[in-house]
Amino acid sequence: MTRQRYTYQELAEQWGITVPAAKQRVRRAGWKRGRGNDGIVRVLVPEDTERIETTVSPIKTAEKQALETLRDTVENLTGVTIKQAQRIEDLTTALLDSQEQNAVLRERLATLAAQKTPPPGAQSLPQKPIAQSRPQSLIGRVLRVLYKGDTPLR
User: Fold this and answer.
1) What CATH number matches the domain at 3-55, 2.120.10, 1.10.1660, 1.20.950, 3.40.50?
2) Alpha-carbon distance 88 to 138, whole Å?
3) Would the pTM of this model clear 0.85, i.e. be above it?
4) Are 11 and 22 in contact (CB under 8 A)?
5) Residues 59-105: pLDDT tens digits?
6) Which sequence spans correspond to the domains of the chain?
7) By C-alpha distance, which of 38, 33, 25, 28 is closest to 6?
8) Please, are residues 34 and 41 in contact by the beta-carbon 8 Å criterion?
9) Among 128, 150, 131, which residue's Cα sits nearest to residue 141?
10) Least confident of 13-22, 64-73, 114-123
11) Structure-derived torsion over alpha carbons of residues 5, 10, 14, 16, reported in degrees to the nearest 10
12) Cα separation of 128 and 121, whole Å?
């Protein structure tokens, strides 16, 4: 049985897995490893590694698809979160502007009320016509007493 020497990095690339996963496979298989003078660990891999590659199953396609779906969902949610944060910031700014305008208008209203004069160009409100002295029906008087609190019926 002949053996070949590979680094963990070469094994990981050959098998399509990560370096820690390649180290785990080597430990599990019980292959001999040795550190060279250059400090790099090399593994003596027997030729019948086909058996090892097939016994350790790679990630299944369904799992890969689920991971892709999960990544896409996380990306979409991240984008939505960023948009909503921007919208909250815009609405907060608009609210603060409205509050400032409200304060200015309240101050102006207080000034006008203190002066008790209508603002220039404002028309006076029409006043109620003076009550006519014609007789009202009994139902009209009852309704007026009930809803307006006028004096009781005579």
Assistant:
1) 1.10.1660
2) 60
3) no
4) yes
5) 567 888 888 999 999 999 999 999 999 999 999 999 999 999 999 99
6) 3-55, 59-112
7) 33
8) yes
9) 150
10) 114-123
11) 140
12) 22
